[in-house]
Write a structure and sequence with these properties.
mainly alpha, 79% helix, 0% strand, Spore maturation protein A, transmembrane helix, Gate_dom
Length: 191
């Protein structure tokens, strides 16, 4: 559906531009945006490789395992059924740990695995359980210790201090995660 919306917006914009006699402006904008897009992507590739390397070092050094050990008791408190199953809890911990380190791409397979494991535990197939809903909220509003993607984008766009986003990101994502858990727990009592 979103593809149709984007296509419609682009098509109407180009059509109106051509009908108003701004075809040259449109072609110049397309060429300049294509050039800046390629430059941005090349900058992002290098920075994402750097951050993926940093995260690999964190993983090999045992930092992510230590973070997972810290998270495990907290997650056992907030998840009801998934906390009793080691496979489900392990996938949840790995997903949240990867998200906390700002590696959404690495977190996706763990998130899928966590949902599959929680669905295995679910008594009502085809309906999201409370744990599944809570996991989705935590996954969307996960605490960001290292917002590597945002730092990479800011650096690629020429920011003078791309790391200045770290403290605001930690604060905002922590508040969002706490409020998400509170809302889920309150709504679980009524629905």
């Amino acid at each position: 559906m979103i593809n149709y919306i984007w296509f419609g917006m682009i098509f109407l914009g180009v059509l109106i531009g051509l009908l108003t006699g701004n075809g040259e402006v449109i072609s110049k904008a397309i060429i300049s945006s294509a050039d800046s897009t390629v430059s941005l992507i090349l900058g992002l590739v290098g920075l994402m490789c750097f951050w993926c390397g940093v995260m690999k070092v964190a993983e090999k050094s045992g930092f992510t395992n230590k973070l997972a050990k810290i998270l495990r008791p907290i997650l056992k408190l907030i998840f009801k059924e998934a906390a009793k199953d080691e496979k489900a809890l392990g996938a949840i911990v790995m997903n949240i740990t990867a998200n906390m380190m700002g590696l959404g791409n690495a977190a996706t397979p763990f998130g899928i695995k966590a949902m599959q494991e929680m669905d295995r535990l679910n008594k009502e197939k085809g309906t999201a359980s409370d744990d599944m809903s809570l996991f989705l909220v935590l996954n969307a509003a996960c605490i960001q210790l290292v917002p590597s993607t945002v730092i990479s984008i800011r650096a690629a766009c020429g920011s003078s201090n791309p790391g200045s986003i770290i403290l605001p990101a930690v604060l905002a994502s922590t508040i969002a995660a706490i409020m998400g858990v509170i809302c889920c727990k309150v709504l679980q009592r009524y629905f």
